[in-house]
Structures are given as C-alpha cells and as structure tokens.
Protein: tRNA (guanine-N(7)-)-methyltransferase
Amino acid sequence: MTAADDTRPDTTGDRPPDGAPAPREAAFYGRRKGKKLRTAQAAHMAQDLPRLAIGLDDVGAASLADLFLHRVREVRLEIGFGGGEHLVAEAQRHTDIGYIGAEAFLNGIAKATTSVSEKGLANVRLYGDDVIPLLDRLPAASLTRVDLLYPDPWPKRRHWKRRFVQADNIDRIARLLVPGGHFRFATDIEHYAAWTLRQLLADPRFDWTAERADDWRLAWAGWPGTRYEAKALREGRRPGYYEFRRR
Structure:
C-alpha cells in the first residue's frame, strides 16, 4: 500500500458547530410512510409485529437479554435499519446475540417484520418510532455494539441540525456501550464521513479502530450489502465503514 493509499479521510470540511449539542426541534429521520404495504406485509404486521415490537416500558429492565425468547449473551442495537437486510443477516449469523432494530419508517418495519417472521428468528426485537426516547430509556452499559448504517446525510447546511451524529447522540451512545463496545457508522457521503470522524476522533471516550485505509474502505466481515449501498455504487459513490471502540 502506498502512502497515498493509506491517507485518512479529510475531516476538515463541513464542520459541525462547535460547542452545544444540536437542538432537537426537528427529527433526524424523514418521512414515516411510503407506498401501500403488500398484502403479505400487512398480514405479518398484524400477526407478528405484536410479539416482535418493544416499547419504552419494556427496556428499563436490568438485563435486556430478558427481551428475547431464548437467552442471549449480549445485545446490539441498529439505528435506522431501513429494510432490515443487515439486521436480519446479522441475527442469522449470530443466533446467540440479541438484536434490537429501531426504524421510524413504517415500510421498513413491515419488511423487517416479514423477514424476521419468515426466517423464524427468535433473537430480534423491533422498535418503530423515534429512537431518541429509546436511547434515553435503555440501561447504561447495556449494549456491546451500536450500528448506524447509511443515515440520512441531510446535505443542506440548514438541515445539518437534523443529522443523527451530534454531540448529544454521541453522549447517548457512549452511555449505552460497555467498555470495549463498538459504534459502527457507514455512509457513502464524504461530507458526512468527515463530519462524523471529526467528532469521534476528538472524543476521548472513543478510539477509531482503523489502522490502514482498507479498514474503512472495505466492508466489515459478513456484510450483506443493502439496496441503498448498491444504488450508491451504481452512481459512483464509494462507501466508507467506520468503527469506533468505547474506552
């Protein structure tokens, strides 16, 4: 690998405002509902979502492992799972790990519910609303990993306050991760990558795990890909995969 190949991303562009956490008068997610659900999806939502869904009153227990049908050795959270491709693939690969998926988009919840039900997964629970109240309710040091994959980049400057990666949410993630736990972030938007790296590299609670360029240029082991990622590649945008370890 040449020196040029090993250059880290430029974190000087699109800097967030320094200091105070971003205001939360606007949600970080966009629309809540898309096209009409398919018949099978609607049926799974009616029959299966009630047993998969969790509410804020369910997550205050000392052990999140109690949320799952069988005992799990650790619990991970995926924020904004889209259609659930990655969430389901991870749950299939690691049946002894519990996965909580949070998604505010109804169609995404429907797709994930259908997939989880058809595959008979017992280690997935779904939360279908704004994730911030969930993050505030989860017990401290209760998660071994938090994934934020291809979040809305809100590219216009006036919308930057709606980006998920802000000081207040970094605080929330730091509170929830066990020492040695991981926060993973994927994006195909260079500006958002620089924004995120600048904040996490300056935070003494986190270490960036990358030692060489391929550590963030290549997808993580077992990565199933997503439809959004495929679209980004078709349009010539190169994704980056960033992982940070909680001290």
User: Anything to note?
Assistant: The chain has nine helices and seven strands.
